[in-house]
Amino acid sequence: MGKRLDGKTIVVTGASSGIGRSTALEFARTSPKNLRLILTARRIDTLKEVAADIKKEVGEGVKVLPFKLDVSQPDEVRSFVGNLPEEWRDIDVLVNNAGLVKGVAKAPEIEEADVNVMFATNVTGLINMTQAVLAIFKKRPDGGAGDIINIGSIAGREPYQGGSIYCATKAAVRSFTDALRKELIATRIRVIEIDPGQVETEFSVVRFYGDKSKADAVYAGCEPLTPDDIAEVVVFTAGRRENVVVADTLIFPNHQA
Ligand code: NDP
Questions:
Q1: Minimal-distance CA residue to ligand 1 atom 34
Q2: Which of 170, 209, 214, 219 does the annotation list as catalytic?
Q3: CA distances (Å), 110 to each of 2, 101, 121, 206, in order?
Q4: Could you read off the pLDDT of 231-251 as tens digits, one per residue?
Q5: Predicted ipTM beyond 0.95
C-alpha cells in the first residue's frame, strides 16, 4: 500500500488536532518516501508542531508544509492553490476533514452565529476545497486523477436531539459526496466518504466553547474510538489500487451500535 502513495501530494484540512493530525501522521508512517503533506488549519503554530512530530517519527523522507487556511473563508480557499509554492501544487489527494460542532441546543434556541459557522466550515468550506482541488485533477495531461476523501459523520445518517444543525451539515456532506461520485463515475477521480461515530478529540471541547469538564463528560462510561482508528481507514482507502473505490465507510465504537 505504501508504494502506491509514494511521491503523492496530499492535503489534509484540519490537521492541527484529532483525526486530521492522526491522518497526517499515518500517511507519513505508511509511505515515508517522497510524500508531500500539506497540513492546513487556522492554528499555524500547532500545525508546525505536528510537522515536527512527523519529522521526529519518520525522518526527512516526507516533506511537510504547514499552511494556515481557514476553510470557512471562500477567498482564502480560492487563493490557496495559487499561494502554494509551485512544487506543492500538483495535489493527488484531498482529505476534507476540517469541521466542528458548536453548542448543544434544541433547534429554536440555536444561535445564528453557531448555525453560520457550522455551515461555513463543514459544508461550504468542504465544497470550496473540493472545487479548488478538482480543478487541479482535471488539468492533468492524463485526463484527471485523484482522490477526494470527505470526513462526514454518523450524525449525517442518524440525527440526534440537540444537534440538528451539525447533523444537517453532515447530511449535506453526504448528499454532496454521493452526487459528486455519480458525476465522476468512470473517471479516475475517486470520491470517498468516511463517517466516524464517537471519537475522542478536541471536538467536544470546541462544542462546549472550551469547557473541558463538559467535554470529558461526553466520554464518561464509554470507550470512544481514537483518532488513529479513523486515520488508519483514511490511509487504507487512499492506498487501494486505482480501480478500487472504498466509497462509503461507517466506523463507530462498539458501544454506539
Ligand atoms: P478536532 O476539534 O480535534 O479537529 C478539528 C480540526 O478542524 C482542527 O484541526 C481545527 O483546526 C480544524 N478546523 C476547524 N474549523 C476550521 C476552519 N474554519 N478552517 C480550517 N480548519 C478548521 O475534531 P475531530 O478531529 O474530531 O474532527 C475532525 C472531523 O471529524 C470533523 O469534520 C468532525 O465533524 C468529524 N467527526 C468527528 C467525530 C468525533 O466524535 N470527534 C465524529 C464524527 C465526525 P484549527 O482550530 O487549528 O483551525
A1: 99
A2: 170
A3: 45, 12, 17, 16
A4: 999 999 999 999 999 999 999
A5: yes
